[in-house]
Amino acid sequence: MRDDKLVQSRLKTPRAAAIAGILFSALFVAAFSLLRISVPSDPTESGEWLKTSSISVGFALNLLPFAGIAFLWFVGALRDRLGVLEDRFFSTVFLGSSLLFLAMLFTSAAAIGAIIVAFAAGPYDLTNSAAFYLARTLAYNVANIYMVKMAGVFMISTSTVVIYTDIAPRWVALLGFALALLLLFGSTYFSWIFIAFPFWVCLISVCLLIDRYRRQPSETLL
Length: 222
Description:
Layout: H1 4-11, H2 14-38, H3 49-52, H4 54-82, H5 88-121, H6 123-126, H7 130-165, H8 170-186, H9 196-215
Helix pairs in contact: 2-4, 2-9, 4-5, 5-7, 7-8, 8-9
């Protein structure tokens, strides 16, 4: 039987954060790409995508809950990795922005899902109604304005923590600051810029894995 302290120590390694971060990145990029390709960026469009892309959009929406779970696991495991090094101020911003990001992600996905269900029940009545444009604009604003900004805040707070704790290379933190500024001020002009967020999460996850193997090369994966 394994020693309880040894098992607990292994569970608190950055490996859990890294694997969850990489999984989130892969799932989110897949879902985000499908949504961007299938759904027009103009929130006032007539809803033609509902006739041709409902299946692909529905598949993307089903990926998002798993991406959210992986992201939440990434945040929790990363906080555990910081341990006593965690600063209360930055940890509050770090945790708060991550939870708001997830809440807005699920809210936007739920709004799009409601549109698809309503269209299946009454396709001709929906696209000509004010409710369609309300739900469509709600999903667009939540995802492209507020959720993107929270992702940028998360990147800034996490990059600051990286600089003070050295849990990842400094250049990763500097890149995080630059990409966060793009999310905060450039998301309105570049519809695909949000792909920078899962890219950065994947990058910091890979750095944590590399650091793990360098510090303890003799330890194997569980």
